[in-house]
Specification:
242 residues; mainly alpha
């Protein structure tokens, strides 16, 4: 973890996951502003739930729905939005795509650009977690759904960090999860879209092992934003130069 930056506190250095161990990651993760915001908002939801409670059945139904739907939502966003190849073609979305996914694939071990941006994750959680909760049981269930989404997001962020960490998991599940994700980043980006599980990859036929796809994808790092595409759609390239 070297290279100074302008960020305060423990985040005044660039964090490279390939050079970190699990203890380093936990310290960095716990002090990242996004993780702190997720924790504070979860506590705020719990306090607000005391004022506007939902009946137990709708509240539990909401929590279960959000927890089960989260892997599918992530899979859909990861595959059909972030890897779709259309966001960089739109000037209004090129910067968003660069920040939340292109930069991560170009430099997978840099922790600062691995975390999702709050201005993208929080509105998404309101849509896919709080809104269904409101439909199930009103304000209290909306709070339960939003809190569940926040907890799932924090867990996913940590699991994603572990997959890029310079640390070999001992457990078979973690080791397999990391191997599939490394194939997504360094062999062929058109598959293995899951983070904590690959059930939806298996269902939709996008789960693969490296032996099943011997040829390495030529766009595994640039996600299809080739020099030719950069000439046609220059907005991401212009931001990269800046």
């Amino acid at each position: 973890m070297n290279q100074r930056s302008s960020k305060p506190g423990s985040w005044n250095r660039t964090h490279h996951l390939g050079r970190m161990d699990l203890r380093d990651l936990i310290a960095a993760y716990a002090t990242h502003h996004a993780v702190i915001v997720y924790a504070l908002l979860t506590l705020a939801c719990a306090a607000a739930f005391m004022l506007w409670p939902a009946p137990p059945l709708p509240a539990m139904a909401t929590i279960l729905f959000v927890a089960l739907a989260y892997p599918l939502v992530w899979y859909a966003l990861h595959r059909w939005v972030l890897h779709s190849g259309w966001m960089f073609k739109l000037p209004a979305l090129a910067g968003l795509w660069k920040r939340i996914h292109y930069d991560h694939h170009m430099d997978p071990d840099r922790l600062e650009i691995l975390f999702g941006a709050l201005w993208t994750t929080l509105p998404t959680l309101l849509l896919v977690a709080a809104l269904p909760g409101w439909a199930i049981g009103g304000p209290g269930s909306a709070l339960a759904g939003f809190a569940t989404g926040l907890v799932c997001t924090a867990f996913y962020e940590f699991a994603h960090c572990v997959q890029h960490l310079g640390w070999k998991p001992r457990g078979r599940w973690l080791a397999t999860m990391k191997r599939r994700h490394m194939e997504h980043h360094f062999h062929d980006e058109d598959g293995n879209f899951g983070i904590t599980n690959f059930a939806w990859d298996r269902l939709f036929g996008t789960l693969y092992t490296r032996s099943e796809r011997p040829a390495k994808s030529p766009t595994v790092f640039n996600l299809g934003y080739t020099p030719e595409m950069a000439r046609r759609y220059p907005w991401v390239a212009a931001l990269a130069r800046d």
